[in-house]
């Protein structure tokens, strides 16, 4: 069975070339750690969404003061936040459409 590796795996190895597509190479010693961290993140996400809270994702593609927010209704937005004052309401920059949401979930290994 082929393992699907996600963006997080790029932190632990060099990209290989396989049939013209870039795949992350994960060193064996890190595989167990990566799986534990992914399970913890998925559990935190499940708990937050289950309790009616949003779940925040940072991404290198966004500006430093922006993050993705996933809401219990499945909606994902890009929002601007003030890191120096979390009490200030966030500003919605963009609401992802269906194809953007699907691509985001694939990139960040969100199973729904």
Number of strands: 6
Q: What is the averaged pLDDT score?
A: 80
Strand arrangement in the largest pleated sheet: 3-4-5-6
What is the end-to-end distance? 21 Å
- What is the N-to-C succession of helices and strands? EEHEEEEH
Helix content: 25-40%
Helix-strand category = alpha+beta
Low-confidence segments: 14-20
- Tell me the radius of gyration: 16 Å
β-strand percent reads 15-25%
What is the approximate shape?
Answer: globular
- Biggest beta-sheet profile: 4 strands, antiparallel
Number of helices: 2
Layout of SSEs?
Layout (H helix, E strand, L loop, with lengths): L14 E4 L2 E4 L3 H23 L4 E3 L8 E5 L5 E5 L10 E5 L2 H10 L5
Antiparallel strand pairs: 1-2, 3-4, 4-5, 5-6
